């Protein structure tokens, strides 16, 4: 029922095509390999291979799609584990249908999408984790001053155009900085870099 509902909602947008649906994690990974979608909406609790494992397997694929968790569970450990596994977002199934289409478009552009509840849990969990702070500060110690400024912007969820405006750089230059920051930090996407920015204390709200 949920899949039919999502297919109806997303299919109503002219610029979105629902490529496939799957009902367990292993089938989801196989569907990604077959269809090469831009965005995957992933539940966490499924039979067989769970959503977290499926996210990790998808992130190991060449040129992987953006994965957004869409689930009924927004507990701290699920939010952090999903984002650290490589998801670019975490939404609850109570997300209003009219918002879902826009959020899928945002995720397709490589930006982070978080439900309000997930965002609150993420900030609280990050601020309480001493080991995460220590590791993040160690990682960011290898960045130049400009790279740290770019990382702080990623922590605020800013797009390249906004980063360019703030730092008085061209978008092409910002894109290069973002790539170097992700490489130095060992991050697979901007969302993971944003987590490190918060853990290291270099990003604002």
UniProtKB/TrEMBL annotation:
Protein name: LuxR family transcriptional regulator
Gene3D superfamilies the record matches: 3.40.50.2300
Every HTH luxR-type domain range: 136-201
InterPro entries: CheY-like_superfamily (IPR011006), NreC/VraR/RcsB-like_REC (IPR058245), Sig_transdc_resp-reg_C-effctor (IPR016032), Sig_transdc_resp-reg_receiver (IPR001789), Tscrpt_reg_LuxR_C (IPR000792), WalR-like (IPR039420)
PROSITE patterns: HTH_LUXR_1, HTH_LUXR_2, RESPONSE_REGULATORY
Pfam families with a match to the protein in the record: GerE, Response_reg
Keywords: DNA-binding, Phosphoprotein, Transcription, Transcription regulation
Top-level taxonomic group: Bacteria
SMART domains xref list: HTH_LUXR, REC
Single GO molecular function: DNA binding
Modified residues (4-aspartylphosphate): 43
């Amino acid at each position: 029922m949920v899949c039919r509902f999502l297919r109806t909602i997303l299919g109503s947008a002219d610029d979105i095509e629902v490529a496939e649906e799957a009902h367990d994690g292993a089938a989801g990974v196989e569907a990604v390999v077959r269809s090469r979608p831009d965005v995957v909406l992933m539940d966490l609790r499924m039979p067989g291979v769970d959503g977290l494992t499926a996210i990790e397997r998808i992130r190991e694929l060449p040129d992987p799609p953006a994965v957004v968790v869409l689930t009924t569970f927004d507990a701290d450990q699920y939010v952090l584990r999903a984002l650290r596994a490589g998801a670019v977002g975490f939404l609850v199934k109570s997300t209003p249908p009219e918002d879902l289409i826009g959020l899928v478009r945002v995720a397709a552009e490589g930006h982070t999408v978080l439900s309000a509840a997930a965002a609150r849990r993420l900030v609280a969990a990050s601020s309480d984790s001493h080991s995460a702070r220590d590791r993040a500060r160690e990682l960011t110690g290898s960045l130049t001053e400009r790279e740290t400024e770019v990382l702080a912007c990623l922590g605020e969820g800013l797009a390249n155009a906004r980063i360019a405006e703030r730092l008085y750089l061209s978008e092409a230059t910002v894109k290069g900085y973002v790539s170097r920051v992700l490489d130095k930090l060992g991050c697979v996407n901007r969302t993971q870099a944003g987590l490190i920015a918060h853990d290291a204390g270099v990003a604002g709200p």
